[in-house]
Amino acid sequence: MDYVGRLERAREEMKKRGMALMYLRRGANLWYLAGVSRAGPELTDHNTYGDYIQGAYIGAEGGFTLVAPRMGSAGWTKQAEGKPWIEEVRIVDEGERPRDVMKDLLNGFRLRGKGVCLEERAWAHTALLFRELLPYSRISNAGEVLEPMRMIKDGDEVALMRKTGEITDKVYGEVVDTLKVGASELEVANEIDYRFRLHGAEQSSFVTAVKFRSPKYPWGLWGSGGPEPRLLEEGDTISFDFGCVYKGYCSDFGRTVYVGDPPEKVRRIHDVVVGAQAAAIERMVGGEVTATQLDSVARGIVERAGYGPNFVHRLGHGIGVTVHEPPFLYLPDDTVLREGMTFTVEPSVLLFGEWSARVEDVVMVTRKGGVPFSNYHKELTTI
């Protein structure tokens, strides 16, 4: 990954915007910009001493300091190894006041009222402390600098996203082969997560969703919602929605399975969904369509088939180092699709209280139309 080039581009944009400093938490943006891995998901509220000042402080004119806790500092130090663009790892000891550490650090950047941009997911505590220590500085969102950069994937990113798609295809194929009547939604979801780890993925990119649906068990908008585990039976559709993270990049994938001989209604809604996705992918030509217009392409096909109210979500979203990121394929996003952008394309039909059909792939915009990163077939699979 060209981290040096990314930092140069970010710093140039900061200077254009009058920003002298960028603060990033240890998350997706810092991984993208400087190769510092995410700290991992926090399953409960978890505090380390001074965590609200931890992260990267990046100067527009130079300077890059990682602020880390004493407990766990070895992991932060290791992240800085081999990265000459990270100039210092400042470890906060419990005997220091975090406010004083941040004040000294900011003084070293000589901001003098110049603007600063903060990670959009910075804690409120962090933002308030920046405001207190820099009362004359304009504070803005670092996403204004980084989001346009992250939208267009370079060759290294595309290679990783293709690999992420290959892993996802393998896992889905293996899981389909294990499906049996009597399995629960949870059991199937756990099998997906387990197989991701076997194939080298770091983790799931979001909570794995496996939904069994049929008229026999009327369900609400998104699922049965009952207190007992839903067990797979003949006559069910299974809607899959899952993805993984591989070397920092995400996949997002969906298919539909039917248990038994599918009735005509199930075949019909599945054909509508596959046709809507194919039409949208064909239109993903760089510079020729907006995000909103692409949503309308697929949505129009679903509506003309008589299922408009049953397509209850947007067509898709940008994807990369996070699973949901701008642009979004829905109203009112008028972003023009450009070559190198990557999106999920995921039309669906949900017959309330009955069956459902969905298909989803990560697709890259090119000058000739969309190129999917998943290659698993889209036929209605039956077991």
What would your notes on this structure say?
By secondary structure, the protein is of the alpha+beta class. The chain contains ten helices and 20 strands. The strands form six sheets. It has a six-stranded mixed β-sheet, sandwiched between helices. The chain has a four-stranded mixed β-sheet with strand order 8-9-12-20, with helices on one face. Strands 7-10-11 form a three-stranded antiparallel β-sheet. Strand 5 (115-118), helix 5 (124-133) and strand 6 (139-141) form a beta-alpha-beta unit. The longest helix is centred in the middle third of the chain and has 24 residues, at 155-178. The model has no long low-confidence stretch (mean pLDDT 94).
Secondary-structure topology with pairs:
Blueprint: H1 3-16, E1 19-24, H2 28-34, E2 55-59, E3 64-69, H3 73-80, E4 88-92, H4 98-108, E5 115-118, H5 124-133, E6 139-141, H6 143-151, H7 155-178, H8 185-198, E7 203-204, E8 209-213, E9 237-242, E10 244-246, E11 249-250, E12 253-258, H9 264-282, H10 291-304, E13 316-318, E14 325-329, E15 342-345, E16 348-350, E17 356-358, E18 361-364, E19 371-372, E20 381-382
Parallel strand pairs: 1-5, 3-4, 5-6, 12-20
Antiparallel strand pairs: 1-2, 2-3, 7-10, 8-9, 9-12, 10-11, 13-14, 15-18, 16-17, 18-19
Helix pairs in contact: 7-8, 9-10
